[in-house]
Amino acid sequence: xxxxxxxxxxxxxxxxxxxxxxxxxxxxxxxxxxxxxxxxxxxxxxxxxxxxxxxxxxxxxxxxxxxxxxxxxxxxxxxxxxxxxxxxxxxxxxxxxxxxxxxxxxxxxxxxxxxxxxxxxxxxxxxxxxxxxxxxxxxxxxxxxxxxxxxxxxxxxxxxxxxxxxxxxxxxxxxxxxxxxxxxxxxxxxxxxxxxxxxxxxxxxxxxxxxxxxxxxxxxxxxxxxxxxxxxxxxx
Length: 236
Fold this sequence. Notes:
Radius of gyration: 16 Å
CATH topology: Rossmann fold
Distance between the termini: 8 Å
Oligomer: single chain
């Protein structure tokens, strides 16, 4: 791997014990702000601040690797710092952000990009954090994300918010993420320990580099190493 900064965050599995909150996922940074894991997310936030990235894309190699949970918690710690944050669910194939924050998904990114509805941004129960849900699943997500309407939306959000986080589909599954990766300031890859295949991650990085994406680093979850308390920070 050839990027300069490699940021890794790890869940302490025995400590979390698969508990979830009423929003359908584990928003540890909101429910347990003084926990070790919440502190790890804050460390990731600090590391990303040094990159000066204004728009950040979160992706993974395949589904069910925790990218939406990471996106949500990262958005929360940024909002807790006092930043005005918007989390955008760009996974219009298997969306989850609306469920995580218990929001209406009858309108959102898909209806805005297809010009069916101009309503877009929703407030959350967390101060400083707004969300753009995916909206109903469209027949052509890739075309919508590649549209000029999406370019206009990114510019609009950049003017309105301090930080914009895009939760996207896995890189190796569809072209959606590659389309968006070149439009944002930086990309962060979620890699689950003992799940992600090295070859697949290398393929993911290669695909992102093809579109000239700026890879900021990676967040590793499902880490169970007790020696380092589930947190690692590497320089390559």
